[in-house]
């Protein structure tokens, strides 16, 4: 899994090198498959994808393949208007919202799947949590830099680890 080393010889026996130069399915496939059930939440799927550095997950029902979920599927699901949004949202606000979610997905610790994003007349409101306090300011600044964002109202909190 993951990325190949910075340098690989074509005949290297290292698994990541073999995968990088593979010519058959057996050489390039992931040998240990991570899968999910239909009832798995998007948050759990996003965590699995991040943890295992994968972009697609098979979806099973009673050990039978019923589909494949990708990162793009998660982004599309997150872009759906938030529950409880009042009144129509303009196309501009919908586009800004999609860009905000896409941007948050690229920032480590920003926890896009734990953040609710609402946009009204170019004002972005972020609620929910982030995994890493160090992600708060950079993610807020990145959102503010998105075209047509007029202001960012950030109400996110840092998740607290519980040990017990």
UniProtKB/TrEMBL annotation:
PROSITE patterns in the record: BON (PS50914), CBS (PS51371)
Residue ranges of domain BON in the record: 92-160
A Pfam cross-reference name: CBS
Bilayer-crossing regions: none
Key word S-adenosyl-L-methionine present: no
InterPro entries reported for this sequence: BON_dom, CBS_dom, CBS_dom_sf, Diverse_CBS-Domain
Record flagged with keyword Glycoprotein: no
Gene3D superfamilies: 3.30.1340.30, CBS-domain
Record keywords, A-Z: CBS domain
Boundaries of every CBS domain copy: 29-85
Protein name (database record): CBS domain-containing protein
Phylogenetic placement of the source organism: Bacteria, Pseudomonadati, Pseudomonadota, Alphaproteobacteria, Sphingomonadales
């Amino acid at each position: 899994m993951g990325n190949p080393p910075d340098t690989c010889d074509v005949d290297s026996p290292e698994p990541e090198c073999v995968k990088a130069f593979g010519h058959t399915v057996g050489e390039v496939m992931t040998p240990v498959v991570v899968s999910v059930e239909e009832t798995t939440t998007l948050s759990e799927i996003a965590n699995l994808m991040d943890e295992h550095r994968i972009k697609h997950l098979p979806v099973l029902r009673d050990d039978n393949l019923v589909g494949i979920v990708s990162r793009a599927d998660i982004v599309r699901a997150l872009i759906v208007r938030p529950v409880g949004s009042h009144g129509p949202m303009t196309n501009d606000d919908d586009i800004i919202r999609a860009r905000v979610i896409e941007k948050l997905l690229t920032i480590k610790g920003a926890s896009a799947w734990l953040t609710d994003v609402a946009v009204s007349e170019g004002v972005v409101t972020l609620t929910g949590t982030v995994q890493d306090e160090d992600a708060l300011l950079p993610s807020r600044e990145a959102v503010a830099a998105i075209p047509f964002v007029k202001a960012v109202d950030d109400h996110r909190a840092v998740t607290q680890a519980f040990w017990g």
